[in-house]
Amino acid sequence: MVIASIDMKDGHVVQLKNGKELVIQRDDADSLISEFNKYGEVAIIDLDQALRNTDEKGNTKNTALLKHLLRHGNVRVGGGIRTAKKARELISLGAEKVIIGSAAWNPDPKPGQSVLNKEFLEELVKTIGRQRIIISVDSINGKIAVKGWTETLNVPLITGAREAEEYCSELLFTCVEKEGCMQGTDMKACEELRKSVTCRVVVAGGVNTVEQIAELEKLGCDVQLGMALYTGKVNLQDAFISCLDFEKVNGMIPVIAQSPAGEVLMLGYSNKAAFEKSFETGKLTFFSRTRNTLWTKGETSGHFLELIKMRADCDRDTVLATVLPHGGVCHTGSYTCFGSEADAKSNLERLYGTIAERFANPKPGSYTATLDAKRVREKVMEEAEELCDEAESKEDVVWEAADLLYFVSVLLYKEGVTWQDVYNELDKRHKEK
Description:
Blueprint: E1 2-9, E2 12-17, E3 21-26, H1 29-36, E4 42-46, H2 47-50, H3 63-69, E5 75-78, H4 84-92, E6 97-100, H5 118-128, E7 133-136, E8 139-140, E9 143-146, E10 151-156, H6 157-164, E11 170-174, H7 187-196, E12 200-204, H8 210-219, E13 221-225, H9 227-230, H10 236-242, E14 253-258, E15 264-270, H11 272-281, E16 285-288, E17 293-296, E18 305-312, E19 319-325, H12 348-360, H13 373-389, H14 394-414, H15 419-432
């Protein structure tokens, strides 16, 4: 599959040729990650960190923007990560994985010494776990490149890769000579690397056609794209579809639709045309095997499924689509095809949405709409006291806790805070420990 890259320098989104020459500069990172995340993981690279262009606190002109983007998709972060502490901080802030470059390598290995900085990598594995680690095996003329691609080590690509995979779940291979040149990547080197290691391999540098992406997919390699996306040479929609294994499933890929909260809503089947229409319209579309035609969910009932993102499974023969349902999903009127309830089950996000609706469009007699900032704080304190001092039975605790969560939700809405913001903070605290 394709991982879209957002490279940052001096506070801007950039694309460089050979890691040096500025070719593209943009300032629309929010819209980029929103679009890129529809199709797969997103890599965010702080080029200034890689080049040590930092202030006295170790920050760059990109730091604030990077932190802002971390929870806007399935994000991996790279660029100048040299300590386990920094890696853990990025994970706690929302990065799913970190990309380790120069810090992974021993700059001057003596005879008999490892080409890797094992002390650092062992600490890193202990701190965040091997599954969260990606090691860059960038190369120039077949040798490992370090320090922002300004130097090479006397370490052959394959030798370095074989040693590195002990400490990571993925290898990121960039053919530096091809980076940003739009001339295709070194397929021979990619194939040799893929055969030499067992972990996931992601290829970057020079890939410029959907056909080459599909070819690399058949080799068992994923692709990280930059220049080809920004210049329009490769369309992410076409790239995503080209990586799916339609042959294995006779042209019909099972698509599981789930809500943003993770509820399974329905299962359907899509061919290439159905995927194209889903991406083009933003509404989940399937292929009806009984009617032998495309059908967009909700085209008659109006209960369509708004597409948020798609993810292919490891075998590329099943797709998970995260969607926002507009009305009941099942033809019976039920919220899900795997249940009989007409509405979604209650959860904090649904409660928050109802509260937002009450304030946006107050109904006659709505209690929620009467709550101002002062009154809602008073109610939070009142309900917390009742939960702590008056609830004696299990039923009492449930009742008072429900009251408290309602008023807390109103308070959050009043302050412009969502439950996801709270979840993110809890996740950060968990990962910091």
